[in-house]
Design a protein that fits this description.
Elements (H helix, E strand, L loop, with lengths): L5 H13 L12 H19 L4 H8 L3 H8 L8 H11 L9
């Protein structure tokens, strides 16, 4: 069993776009979309490293659990980039962010 073909990957990504789970980063993502996606990854990494529940993480940053779920699943249309940064700074005040 080898790697999936490009066509199989495109088909899987298309399914993910309409699913209720975690959103995948689009193939043609802009720099801003990549930055925001990476920022969500920081929340996920923090949750794993500190072995926090979603509820505890929501409490730490001052949002309800539903909003925390949206961040953890990259469903962040209702969040500005500034707000995401401010929320993450509550977890890691020394965070250094950069666009590459």
């Amino acid at each position: 069993m080898g790697f999936p073909t490009k066509e199989q990957i495109k088909k899987a990504l298309k399914k993910l776009e309409t699913s209720e789970g975690t959103l995948a980063l689009p193939e043609n993502a802009s720099a801003l979309e990549r930055f925001r996606w990476d920022l969500c990854q920081k929340f996920i990494k923090y949750k794993r490293i500190h072995k926090c529940s979603q509820k505890r993480l929501a409490s730490l940053i001052g949002v309800d659990e539903a909003k925390m779920s949206k961040i953890l699943h990259h469903r962040i249309d209702e969040f500005s980039t500034d707000r995401l940064i401010l929320l993450y700074e509550k977890l890691d005040p020394t965070v250094k962010l950069k666009v590459s």
